[in-house]
Amino acid sequence: MMKVSSIGKKISLLVATLVMSALVLVPGVRSAHAAEINEPIITSASVASTPLYSVAGATVKLTMDFQLPNNIIHEGDTSTLTLPSGFTFAWTMDFNVEDNSGNVVARGHANTTNRTLVLTYTNYPETHSDIRGSIEAAMRREDETSNDYGMKTLTINDGNHTVNVNGQVDYRQWTGDNPNERLAKWTTIDPVNKQIIYHVRVNAHGDNLSNVVLEDTLSTPDARYAGPTPSGDEMISIQRGTFARDAVGNFYITNELASNSPEITAARASIAVNAQRNHFTINLGNLGTDGVVLTYAVVFGHEPVQSEAINNDVKITYGTPGQEESYHSRVMWQTVSGRANGYNYTIGIKKTDKNGNALKGAEFTVTRDRSGEVVGTVTTDDNGEATINGLLRDDYTITETKAPEGYTVAAPVKINGAQFDRSSLSAYVNVEDEKVPTSPVPPTEVSTKPKKKQQLSNTGSDVTALITGVAITASIALAVLVTRKKLA
């Protein structure tokens, strides 16, 4: 195996360090670590005015309108909403917050244990601006047997901020079932499995009833009874016995017959369901003073939406001649759900000269200031216009990179988020170019001064001076020589 020298290791470490530093410094590159959004998102909250009773399954609707801050939310970031002590969400469940086209803005999770609703964002906030929406949630008392009755004012913790809820919860004591009840119906909503569980109670009062036939009809389109077989096997749970009342006043069954008893077996065999599975009858026979509870599930061919009305009618006939009682059930589908919509914006560029004439062929780059990302390159058409779509409402720089022939490049132009019109979802800018200046040819200068005569060099004089100098020098030298000889 090749050994890596210590110098090689140091070089590798240095390269890795430089790469990581570059990732930190490059605009638009973000750590994958998700963050909790500190800015509040709830703009208003309200609670329905319907009473909330101290009985299991009782809920009241909470509505929260929200707006997401622009340009700071990234995929994986979260917002946490918390209910006050004493109240919680009706179910622990997951749900999606979607826009009108079915795109997921955030994935929600409601938790009954810690009273929280957490939104985990997709990349939708990174590609849309001005996202507004609403969340509706069924809410209940944390302790459904609490005797702290009265009007309750609520607040919601939105991250580190407190939101006051409009309206009050009218929390009332449940006073029990009707003691003279002969026919009653109630529901349990199961939003996780997208079904409603119906409970029908017959003869809780304990009258002496004979020839009892029950007929049930689902009047909501696309609703049908759940169950594996058209004959109704396993579709309906049947309990039979006598009823008593607890301390609160609720009926409960005692002396219950076995599920394979002749009475229950005969009743199950009599179930008749139509082909559409939205109507059935069951012959309960001679009940005497016994009562019966039927339980069955209803599913839908569509996904129910928040506050959708689900209608059901049940009727019993009994005695000779047949007497009749009926009960209409209207249930509002309750769950935790959300809707939101965000928007994309457009920048329009108009290119003209100083006189307002359209200029074709100008090229521009559009850069998002926040990240340094070039979000588009466009060229003006015959009308001098160009557009770039799919933008966030943010600050941008428009830079002309190529001017039309014969024109100079204009200075960069800035557009800030406030300039985008929220109705047209656009911002427009006009960019003017100036023509390239032409350099003038300087005129030829004609001098009116007389020309000077060209002065020739005086060559003869110079030669004469040179000869004279040489002669003088020679004479001096000769005189010196003669003098030296005389002295000798």
Spell out the key features of this protein.
488 residues, Immunoglobulin-like, six-stranded antiparallel β-sheet, 12% helix, elongated, disordered N terminus
Summarize the structure.
Helix content is 12%, strand content 43%. It is mainly beta and 488 residues long. The chain folds into three domains: 42-174, Immunoglobulin-like (Sandwich), CATH 2.60.40; 183-333, Immunoglobulin-like (Sandwich), CATH 2.60.40; 344-435, Immunoglobulin-like, CATH 2.60.40.
Structural overview:
The structure is a single chain. With about 500 residues, this protein is mainly β. It has 3 domains: about 40-175, Sandwich (Immunoglobulin-like), CATH 2.60.40.1280; about 185-335, Immunoglobulin-like (Sandwich), CATH 2.60.40.740; about 345-435, Immunoglobulins (Immunoglobulin-like). The chain has helices spanning about 5-25, 125, 260-270, 460-485; strands spanning about 40-45, 50-55, 60-65, 80, 85-90, 95-100, 105-110, 115-120, 130-140, 150-160, 160-170, 185-190, 195-200, 210-220, 225, 235-245, 250-255, 270-275, 280-285, 290-300, 310-320, 325-330, 335-345, 345-355, 365-370, 375-380, 385-390, 395-400, 415, 425-435. The strands form 5 sheets. Strands 1, 2, 3, 4, 5, 6, 7, 8, 9, 10, 11 and 23 form a 12-stranded mixed beta sheet that branches. Strands 12, 13, 15, 16, 17 and 20 form a 6-stranded antiparallel beta sheet that branches. The chain has a 5-stranded antiparallel beta sheet with strand order 18-19-14-21-22. The longest helix is centred in the last third of the chain and has 29 residues, at about 460-485. Mean pLDDT is about 85; it is low at about 1-5, about 15-30, about 455-460 and about 465.
